[in-house]
Design brief:
Largest sheet: 4 strands, antiparallel
Structural class: alpha+beta
Number of domains: 2
Strand order of the largest sheet: 1-4-7-8
Shape: globular
Number of helices: 8
Distance between the termini: 35 Å
Oligomer: single chain
Number of strands: 8
Length: 245
């Protein structure tokens, strides 16, 4: 599969920052709270950062300026939207006229930029209003412990921002920056889950383990008083009722 140009640009920018810093992957891992192996995968383009927070931590450890961080935020958002938007299959007419038409990826990039600039700020509110209506059925909450596959984050003392994990607003939407609540969690945190959803958006952790299972957890400091923890972010498997759509 061909890597989208937007993803390549983000990878090239991270590579340039790392090379400019002159720091080893071991040093960057200590500063960022991200494992050496993950940093190397982002640097080589073998993996795409699942959240902007990861990009921010990588770049900040390399000494990126505030202006560079703002540019990286735009690059990551555009790349994330582009790689999650499948290209439509060409029709027979498209194939015959493909030489004279502009590349589809450029059209997607323009749409992605517009979406980032105009809609990201309002997306969470829209999702809350349209897609995440709370279930009216009361459930008994059970404790569930957060798990971070990154070894450095499991052993590192303190609540390092780069080791924090996001909780989704809506488990049926892509698990990305615009679909994450402000409340952050860390490895070992205990949350209260009241139901489970088995057919949500598929997500993968940094080791490639994927799932469509999501736990609804109760929070006091977010809209609707709940958010969603993906199954790859916990080793627990409590018996819970299925969440009502």
């Amino acid at each position: 599969m061909t890597t989208p140009a937007e993803t390549e640009r983000l990878t090239a920018r991270l590579r340039a920052l790392k090379d400019r810093s002159g720091s080893s992957f071991e040093a960057l891992a200590r500063r960022s709270g991200i494992s050496r192996s993950s940093l190397h995968r982002y640097y080589s383009g073998a993996s795409f950062p699942a959240s902007y927070e990861t990009v921010h931590a990588f770049a900040r450890a390399c000494g990126a300026s505030d202006e560079e961080l703002r540019e990286l935020r735009k690059l990551w958002a555009v790349a994330d939207i582009t790689r999650s938007t499948p290209l439509p299959a060409p029709t027979k007419g498209d194939e015959e006229a493909s030489v004279s038409r502009p590349p589809r990826t450029r059209v997607i990039a323009v749409v992605a930029v517009a979406a980032v600039l105009l809609l990201v700020a309002a997306s969470v509110a829209g999702v809350l209003a349209l897609r995440s209506k709370p279930d009216e059925t009361p459930h008994t909450a059970v404790p569930i412990r957060v798990f971070n596959v990154e070894g450095d984050c499991r052993t590192r003392p303190g609540r390092v921002p780069a080791c924090s994990l996001g909780l989704a607003v809506d488990p049926r939407l892509p698990y990305e920056f615009s679909n994450v609540v402000s409340h952050r969690v860390w490895h070992g945190d205990v949350l209260s889950a009241d139901c489970v959803l088995y057919d949500g958006e598929r997500v993968e952790d940094e080791m490639g383990v994927g799932t469509t299972r999501w736990f609804r957890v109760r929070l006091d400091d977010v809209p609707n008083s709940h958010a969603w923890l993906p199954g790859v972010r916990t080793n627990d498997n409590p018996k819970l009722p299925v969440c009502t759509p």
